[in-house]
Specification:
69 residues, alpha+beta, Alpha-Beta Plaits, four-stranded antiparallel β-sheet, 2 helices
Length: 69
């Protein structure tokens, strides 16, 4: 069963931001899909086993701060 979790990521505003975040999250286990909404400045992550700390750390590695929304 998949779970979807939304993270607030202030400061994302371009395709570059989106690509950097998706690239970092693509390597995490337990994530099946990533959706970035630049207008709302949120990232939605879906998968069977999502670790908040790992997702937040990956987004940080992409250059952005994230908090669970």
């Amino acid at each position: 069963m998949n779970t979807t979790i939304t993270y607030s990521v202030p400061g994302i505003s371009s395709g570059h931001c989106e690509a950097a975040i998706i690239e970092q999250l693509a390597g995490l286990r337990g994530i099946d899909a990533v959706a970035v909404d630049l207008d709302a400045q949120i990232v939605r992550v879906s998968g069977p086993q999502i670790g908040d700390a790992a997702v937040i750390a990956a987004i940080y590695e992409a250059g952005y701060e994230a908090v669970k929304a």
